[in-house]
Specification:
The chain has 111 residues and is mainly α. The chain has 4 helices and no strands.
Amino acid sequence: MSQYEPLPRPESTQETPPPPPPPPRLDFYMPAMPPLGLIHALEHWWWAYRRRRRFRRSVLTLLEYDDAILGDLGYRRDDLLWALRLPLKMDAQGALEARRAQGPVEECPDD
């Protein structure tokens, strides 16, 4: 290997893994075990937080472009800003795609 060969890097995917499955129902519960529901809630929150951070990082790079380029990509600046303000419990990427699939919003002309 020479210094001019690129370093092998793991393939990064834009898709996040699915949310963690709910905890199994145990027949035997040790008193010293932490509650499985609490562990699942924390794991789910961490998964949602990581997904939102990844979405936010990608949208902030899009917001650096002007409106003409965003229009060519199929986005509108106010839709991206709207998706960034959604609560953490909502899937911002899915909501943005649903809003994008509805098509352009026509504004009413003032009479």
